[in-house]
Amino acid sequence: MDSPVGRLTVTETDGAITAVDWNGNAQDETELLVAARDQLHQYFGSGSHVIDLPVRVAGSTFLIEICAAMSAIPAGETRTYGEIARNLGVSAQAAGQGCGANPVPIIIPCHRVLGARDLGGYSGAGGIETKVWLLRHEGAAGLLI
């Protein structure tokens, strides 16, 4: 699907969303992929900033835990890598690396995690500019003005 942050490809595996990529390879349309497209269109439009889809993260226990921590951050709010790290008992650097390894960006909102003194990074297409766009879109832009 086309979006304000580029062309996105959502991947479904066995009834769960498992990836969001920029310019990835499209799958045949399924009910879940149609629902994902509809919810993402609402997210990018003037509708809801809540995306409620079944998601499965394949990877280490740490990646699963950090993705769960990011998923718990409400739209319009942010956390720091340090806050996430303290809650998981890891270093801020490890939290940053985990955020960067998020296989389902936007749906799992890694853009809501910031550095203590800066925006941190963003591994999606467009890098930090995409992160800034997403934060402004969600109304978390007070810190960016």
Q: Order of strands across the biggest sheet?
A: 1-2-3
Q: What Rg, in angstroms, do the CA atoms define?
A: 15 Å
Low-confidence stretches: none
Kindly state the number of beta strands.
5
Helix content: 25-40%
Sheet of most strands: 3 strands, antiparallel
Mean of residue pLDDT values: 92
CATH superfamily of the largest domain: Winged helix-like DNA-binding domain superfamily/Winged helix DNA-binding domain
Number of helices: 5
Give a verbal description of the structure.
The longest helix is centred in the first third of the chain and has 14 residues, at 31-44. The protein starts with a strand and ends in an 8-residue tail after the last helix. The strands form two sheets. Strands 1-2-3 form a three-stranded antiparallel beta sheet, covered by helices on one side. It has helices at residues 31-44, 61-71, 81-88, 92-100, 127-137; strands at 2-3, 6-13, 16-22, 79-80, 113-114. It folds into two domains: 2-44, no CATH class; 61-138, Winged helix-like DNA-binding domain superfamily/Winged helix DNA-binding domain (Arc Repressor Mutant, subunit A, Orthogonal Bundle), CATH 1.10.10. Helix content is 37%, strand content 14%. α3 (81-88) crosses α4. The chain is globular.
How would you summarize this macromolecular structure in one to three sentences?
This protein is of the alpha+beta class. The chain is built from five helices and five strands. The chain has two domains: 43 residues, no CATH class; 78 residues, Winged helix-like DNA-binding domain superfamily/Winged helix DNA-binding domain (Arc Repressor Mutant, subunit A, Orthogonal Bundle).
